[in-house]
Amino acid sequence: MTTGRNRFYHAFVSIKAQQIRPGPLYHGTKPVRDPAYLRFIKRLPCVACLRTSWIDPAHTGPHGIGQKACDLTCVPLCRRCHDLYDANPRLFAERHQLDISALIERFNSFYQTKLEGKAA
User: Whole-angstrom Cα distance, residue 2 to residue 110?
Assistant: First the structure.
């Protein structure tokens, strides 16, 4: 049972919320999906242990429950290293002395030159 005071409070909070933040709270952009890039990443060795089998593209960008980061932020990791990375990305990068952002930039650059070579 709602009292008049509760109705007034909920209406007031609703109006205040609309004044402070019109529209949705989060204006996200759709992440890039590129299956060809994922296949390219899977052909590379693991960046941590250099293993060449069971390679997974590990999404490194910001992501949460039910959503993945952009495919262009993937790095190649074997399944074991991928699990360790997912458990604690920062610690994993420190232990293996990896500069993830530099790796991503290098892989993207290499992928683009590979695409341009196919087009030429």
Answer: 62
Domain borders along the chain are: 35-119
- CA–CA gap between residue 34 and residue 48 (Å, rounded): 23
* Tens digits of residue pLDDT in 31-68: 889 999 999 999 999 999 999 999 999 999 777 777 77
DSSP string covering 11-66: HHHHHHHHHHS-S-S----PPP--HHHHHHHHTSPPTTT---SSEEEEE-SS--TT
For residues 85 and 66, what is the distance between their CA atoms, to the nearest angstrom? 18
Tokens of 74: 């993937």
C-alpha closest to that of 78 among 106, 107, 52? 52
Residues 20-29 have a mean pLDDT of 54
